[in-house]
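Sat 14:20. Reprocessing the chain from the morning session after the first attempt stalled halfway. Input below, unchanged.
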Amino acid sequence: MKITKTNLAGLLIIEPAVYEDERGYFMESFSRSALKQYCDINFIQDNEAYSQRGVLRGLHYQIPPIAQSKLVRVAIGSVLDVVVDIRPESETYGQSFSIVLSGENKKQLLVPRGFAHGYVVLSEHAYFLYKVDNVYSKEHEAGIKYDDEALGIDWIIPNDQLIISDKDQVQPLFSQHTPYN
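Finished this time. Tokens:
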């Protein structure tokens, strides 16, 4: 398993070793011991989302004390996965990072607490899988508007082709988001 640090502290790209032969492939998608030297996260739940091309979900996060870390990946299809550092004390506060996650490249992203997270489906459909280290709490959910010009995120898919929930269309701008502290 190859683990690469990004320019945003705590955000890790994980590339599992994939063993292929004529029958298919095998990979270890999660290893607590491999991650132990980088972080100590106790994942408690696995989630799965299916979406079609152009579906944009995000940018979401939960505020403390029910914040969540996530380990995200795509089993089938491809997405542009995007995070924004919302930790006020961070040197990279307000900066974003994006990466294509796909069933082909098998890359994963470890998104620690203190990041807003979202993705857009680039393929005809995608199965998005993620682990979380805390329960979902409606009272602690928050978000940032996906197209906030201050963030400058290129979602790749043209705006008129995006499929966005009513909730995500009215999220606050970064300058007005619910503080993460």
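The domain at 2-176 is CATH 2.60.120.10 (Jelly Rolls).
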